[in-house]
From TrEMBL:
Keywords: ATP-binding, Nucleotide-binding, Transport
UniProt xrefs under InterPro entries: AAA+_ATPase, ABC_AA/LPS_Transport, ABC_transporter-like_ATP-bd, BCA_ABC_TP_C, P-loop_NTPase
A Pfam family that the UniProt record links to this protein: ABC_tran
Record domain ABC transporter: where: 2-233
An annotated Gene Ontology molecular function: ATP binding
Gene3D superfamilies with a match to the protein in the record: P-loop containing nucleotide triphosphate hydrolases
CDD domains xref list: ABC_Mj1267_LivG_branched
Organism: Albidovulum litorale
Residue ranges of the TM segments: none
Classification of source organism: Bacteria, Pseudomonadati, Pseudomonadota, Alphaproteobacteria, Rhodobacterales
Protein's name in the database: ABC transporter ATP-binding protein
Amino acid sequence: MLRVEGVSKSFGGVQAVDDVSFTVTDTEIHGLIGPNGAGKTTMINLISGFLRPTQGRILLEDREIQNMPPETVARSGIARTFQNLRLFRNLTVRRNIEVAESHAADASDPTLIDDAIDRFGLGPVLGLAPDALSYGHMRRLEIIRALALRPRVLLLDEPAAGMNTEETEELFRNLLWLRERHPCAILLIDHDLKFIMSASETLTVMNMGRLLASGLPQDVTKNEEVIRAYLGHGETV
């Protein structure tokens, strides 16, 4: 579904991403992990069109998207959330969702968003502005707004950030529901290792812009380079 092939990105003399390749297959949940500064959010920005790579290719199915602007990437089937919330503060919760839905390439499932609103518990707050919501509700709103585009690939940048254990477990269940209700690939960044190990069927690990490993979680977490750079020998996952 999504292929990153030899992608690099430099900012002046800083190499933020260095020759990274990985594949996200159809309907899988793929975790992208690594320490702070590893290049994970830069990679999400490259895939979603907010940045253009210095070299390499990014393909959605077999179509190159690395030179498309963000709005074209979104209409092509890639939707995202942001590490730092980017909601339309002057619109209600419902209008935030409707703005995205008006740009959906495929609206053949008219009950999808109403079902998601119920599942994510946003029904009682649809008439409120985002600033009136709890932090957890704002995170859920970003996910549903991205879902409203009917994506083939959903990019989630730290969706569990700031959540307690109960909220994180609920998010995990909701992502499984979402993937079943609207089959799509999910690329997931998060620093909550328990959450991302539970949710992900495949893992890619980055450090200092480089690819350390990619594969099944049980294999990746035994990789000595991954252990040294990120997990630590005392970490249990």
